[in-house]
Specification:
The chain is of the alpha+beta class. It has a domain of 91 residues. The protein has 6 helices and 3 strands; from the N terminus they run βββαααααα.
């Protein structure tokens, strides 16, 4: 694969009555998330984390984007977003299905370099603990 893989971005917006999220690709909103809980769940957030007063956005930031002693992997996050979109957006599936296979392959290859000691997402999956 020689072409550049676009990365999905997630943003939270609020209205006077509720919060909702949106997923963007190259600056275009491709999906409005009305059930943020389901999005966070696909990304690995769970009830135990909530009980420990870990906010969902804090979990996503710490797990996928904060670079410190642990090598976090944005490809892991991208795979979760693609999984969410394939489950919840018929429009996304119809429009991007052919490209998704390439994107998944590229991100999965990058993720294969991650292991439990270097990837917070995999560490949580194995130990069931927030890092």
């Amino acid at each position: 694969m020689t072409h550049k893989v676009p990365h999905f971005k997630f943003h939270i917006k609020s209205t006077s009555t509720k919060f909702y999220g949106r997923i963007e690709l190259k600056g275009e909103v491709i999906y409005i998330i009305e059930d943020l809980g389901e999005f966070y769940k696909v990304c690995g957030y769970n009830l135990e984390m909530a009980k420990e007063a870990i906010l969902p956005d804090q979990y996503i930031w710490n797990t996928f984007f904060r670079f410190n002693k642990i090598r976090n992997c944005s490809s892991c996050y991208q795979l979760h977003v693609i999984e969410f979109l394939l489950r919840h957006s018929d429009t996304f599936t119809k429009k991007f299905r052919n490209m998704c296979e390439d994107w998944i392959e590229i991100h999965a290859k990058a993720r294969s370099a991650c292991d439990v000691t270097t990837c917070a997402d995999r560490k949580y999956a194995v130990t069931n603990k927030f890092v």
